[in-house]
Specification:
Elements (H helix, E strand, L loop, with lengths): L1 E6 L8 E5 L4 E6 L6 H5 L14 E3 L7
Parallel strand pairs: 3-4
Antiparallel strand pairs: 1-2, 2-3
Length: 65
């Protein structure tokens, strides 16, 4: 199993974590960055993973980040 943080590592917002079990890929949250203009620009960057490869998504909370 491999867990990769693609957001909220070093920041409060932008929570996005990919869990790869070898047989499936699970995305835990996929939030937006909030705050400074430099953080907001990250919202327009391409994903660091192929979204079509995700089998399941778990949203842990309902607010924007």
């Amino acid at each position: 199993m491999q867990i990769t943080s693609h957001g909220a590592a070093g920041f409060v917002t932008g929570s996005c974590h990919l869990v790869d079990t070898g047989s499936s890929r699970l995305l835990v949250d996929c939030g937006m960055y909030q705050g400074s203009k430099s953080l907001n620009r990250l919202n327009y960057e391409p994903f660091a993973f192929d979204p079509e490869s995700i089998d399941f998504v778990i949203n842990t909370h309902a607010h924007i980040d």
